[in-house]
């Protein structure tokens, strides 16, 4: 992987991670267009790279929401009850994905990590966004709660919604934002909780991909830190560093833009974007563009 390829993938990851459009499909198409992932070992390394540069997206949210993160840290020290309450809410929201992800990970990767299912997820998610956006513009959810009012039950239900995003292409941020709205949070509170919950979910996914053994390749990768070793052997340190930095900067820009845009215009544009992406993906599959019909 060249430095410029790492830069492009980092920017795509950062922009799409927190927008409700799903990063998975965008990264697959970008990798194929750049000729990345053409062999089993290269594909495994590219998959690890795509997950581990999420560390940049995590860093962006840590920076943008540092006052809230600091509040939670003080909560751990017993100095901020509201921060401690939010920590428990994030734990409750994270647990469903942690349990179901461990139990169903192999099945999901075998059955759902195909481009046709990503295309369907784009389409279904787009329709879902348009329905929720229309409901909100008619007054639905206008009297929702602030983040400080979230309960463990509400957080757990959002966590269950997050599990739907294990279907690649669905978008974690989409399901958690809509989940937050449906359980009674204001849009701004649902967005903030989605980002904060992502710190736990994306952090766990990144750590797991780096330390988990990689089966089916050389024996040295079928050990602890197999993913990290595979990336090191294939790419070295520089592309990974560039990818993480690019993801950090682009995620920070995307999050700030998204928050400002949602406050003015709502979710609708993301629904139409997803539907357009689904149509484009269907055309790619029909023409076997970049071999995506068999991915």
Structural commentary:
The protein has one domain (3-294). It starts with a helix and ends in an 8-residue tail after the last helix. The radius of gyration is 19 Å and the shape is globular. 44% of the residues are buried. The chain has 295 residues and is mainly alpha-helical. The chain has 13 helices and no strands. Helices cover 76% and strands 0% of the residues. Helix 1 packs antiparallel against helix 2 (23-33). It is found in: Cell membrane. It comes from Luteolibacter rhizosphaerae. It is a multi-pass membrane protein. Its EC number is 3.6.1.27. The chain crosses the membrane at residues 44-66, 86-105, 117-135, 173-199, 237-259, 271-293.
Quick structural gist:
Belongs to the UppP family. This protein is 76% helix and 0% strand.
Number of domains: 1
Binned strand content: under 5%
In sequence order, what are the helices and strands, one letter per element? HHHHHHHHHHHHH
**Oligomer status:** single chain
Q: Pairing-aware structural class of the strands and helices?
A: mainly alpha
Total strands: the figure is 0
Main beta sheet strand tally, sense and closure: none
> How far apart are the termini?
20 Å
| Number of DSSP helical runs | 13
Low-confidence stretches: none
Shape: globular
Q: Which range best describes the helical content: under 10%, 10-25%, 25-40%, 40-55%, 55-70% or over 70%?
A: over 70%
Radius of gyration: 19 Å
What integer is the average pLDDT? 91
Pfam families: BacA
Keywords: Antibiotic resistance, Cell membrane, Cell shape, Cell wall biogenesis/degradation, Hydrolase, Membrane, Peptidoglycan synthesis, Transmembrane, Transmembrane helix
Membrane topology: Multi-pass membrane protein
Subcellular location: Cell membrane
């Amino acid at each position: 992987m060249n430095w410029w390829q790492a830069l492009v993938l980092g920017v795509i990851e950062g922009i799409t991670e927190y927008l409700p459009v799903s990063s998975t499909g965008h990264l697959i198409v970008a990798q194929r267009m750049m000729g990345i992932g053409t062999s089993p070992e290269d594909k495994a390394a590219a998959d690890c790279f795509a997950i581990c540069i999420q560390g940049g997206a995590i860093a962006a949210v840590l920076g943008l929401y540092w006052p809230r993160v600091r509040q939670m840290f003080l909560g751990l020290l017993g100095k901020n009850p509201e921060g401690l309450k939010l920590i428990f809410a994030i734990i409750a929201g994270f647990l469903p994905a942690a349990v179901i992800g461990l139990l169903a990970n192999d099945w999901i990767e075998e059955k759902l990590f195909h481009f046709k299912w990503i295309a369907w997820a784009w389409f279904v998610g787009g329709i879902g966004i348009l329905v929720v956006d229309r409901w909100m513009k008619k007054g639905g959810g206008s009297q929702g709660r602030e983040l400080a009012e979230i309960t463990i039950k509400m957080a757990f239900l959002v966590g269950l919604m997050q599990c739907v995003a294990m279907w690649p292409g669905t978008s974690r941020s989409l399901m958690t934002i809509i989940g937050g709205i449906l359980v009674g949070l204001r849009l701004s509170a649902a967005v903030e909780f989605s980002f904060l919950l992502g710190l736990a979910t994306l952090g766990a996914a990144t750590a797991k991909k780096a330390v988990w053994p990689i089966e089916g390749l050389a024996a040295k990768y079928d050990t602890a830190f197999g993913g990290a070793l595979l990336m090191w052997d294939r790419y070295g340190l520089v592309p990974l560093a560039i990818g993480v930095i690019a993801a950090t900067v682009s995620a920070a820009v995307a999050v700030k833009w998204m928050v400002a845009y949602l406050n003015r215009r709502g979710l609708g544009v993301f629904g139409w974007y997803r539907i357009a992406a689904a149509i484009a993906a269907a055309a790619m599959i029909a023409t076997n563009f970049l071999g995506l019909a068999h991915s």
